[in-house]
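Task 17 of the worksheet. Students: predict the tertiary structure of the chain below and write it out as structure tokens. Keep your answer in the requested format; marks are given for formatting as well as content.
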Amino acid sequence: MFNLRSPTLILLGCLAGGAAALPADDGMRTEDSGAARTGEVTIYRDSMGVPHVFARTSADVMFGAGYAQAEDRLAELELARRSAVGRTAEILGKSAVAADKAARNRMLDEAELMRMYRQIPREHQLMLQAFVDGINAKVTEVLADPERKTPMEFIRWGIKPTPWTLRDHLAYIATMPRGRGGDELRNLAFLNAMVSRHGDRIGRAIFEDVVPLSDPDSPTVIPQGEDLAPPQAMPEPMTRSPATGELLLQSPVLHREQIAGELVGASRCLVLGPQRSASRNVLMLQATADGPEVHLHGGGFDVAGFGFTGYGVPFMGRAANHGWLLTSGKSDTTDTYVEQLHPKDKYKYRFRDQWLSMSRRTETILVKDGEPIEHEVASTIHGPVISRDESGRFAYTHRYATRGRELDTWVGIVEMARARNLEEFESLGVRRVGWNLGICYGGDDGQIAFWEAGSIPKRPLTADPRLPTPGTGEYEWLGLLSGEEMPRMRNPRQGYIHAWNSKATSWSTEGDEGRFGAAFRTWLGDQLARSSSSATLLDMRRYNQQIFNSLGARDITLTTPALFAPFLRDALTATADPEVRQAIELMSAFDGLS
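Model answer:
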């Protein structure tokens, strides 16, 4: 939570504790970096233990970030890199096998990782390698004095810390969230159940009500008329698959991770423009998100914030001239394709009138205190096979819009941190991001902005995104939204931005996860923002407490009491029973915050 136009966040005046000066060259580089690192890296820790990294080049700064993060979170880093390549069962046992299988299905091979690595700018390549070198500098210290410096977790796991490779780091970045969607099998099972229970007409009506393509009552981050992007056409509902009339009669095999429970979301940002703050400066609040804090200075960085363990740069924070906050975007960026299999070969699938062979490999998953497990990974041109139907005639695969742009997201985050103005923030940062994110911006010049960013697919209007898409070639994506087609707004007339995993704009679909509709949790943040004309940082803290106290602030269907008020008034008029009237009056008095 910060007030733009506050003093630049270098924080030298309030530093306490020790400082460590690290040599720029520790002899552990695994890839030639030329003159990437040229001077000393200095790390101060303040009274809260937050590292402040000072250096001259961007690679030196990232070396210091890697060292500081390994100093604080070496065990968490170990879990992160193992999770990326499906090796957590080696230290956690059988409970981690399912997650390891999913990771093996999705992970990219080294050739693909290095292809993406060589396509990003040279400076960013050097920063990634330097971060690895910083981690390894700390690993070397631990291995030189294992009795005093080995983290407790490694002792419990029965392993020693080992040096990181560039591939470890790239594989981890490539596994960051790929965006929403991919719930089509769950929707198909729901549709089948409703049709089976209530008949075709009523069953389909229930499906359309629970999982609509778009609900006009859904609140949006971007108000009507404020979207700078041209509206995209809405696909037509199509609950009978054009691939085969039998598809809806099939019973897909749903694994535990494909069956959703309570609908929740994590990240929320609230940005008040100058006209709504007492200081007439932008106020920004991020909540329900956390991670390691760091302050980076040098090589174009002057930024303090927090991010993911292993990512290096702050994922959101405060730079010299601006602040930025992120939420998970709400666009549907993952599709489930139904592949028609060859009647005599379950590894051949039909695509554009040809029978193609799946790529296949067998992975061996080592299990602590258990026998090794052989796991087969099969993929089509759309992506990995995640399930097969009981008849053996179809396989289901996931296609990710971010595929091939995983490292672009890292580059985009770096440039959002280093941007010197709103134009650079958008052109160098936002438009480079591959992961679907809701991005909130506030500048010390008083400008505020929002983007629904990332790789958002354009689907043919004949493909229903709520249900598995036929993989036979007629319903392929038509590309991705360009930067000019990306939902976005600048300086909205309402004077604020409130995003909480919300639908971006009126022409956005609801996705695979079920409706938002009028019963959505953003009502209180919007209400508080609209009522603000002279808010302070203390008010922002109070707003956060109020929103959080509204039944835990997790359930996305948390509803405003105003939605029920007309019905309660009608019920009060219709009854003379004193007990019923008392109950209605008590319900009417509920403010949604208790």
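Marker's comment: Residues 1-18, 23-35, 241-251, 253-264 have pLDDT under 50 and may be disordered. The radius of gyration is 26 Å.
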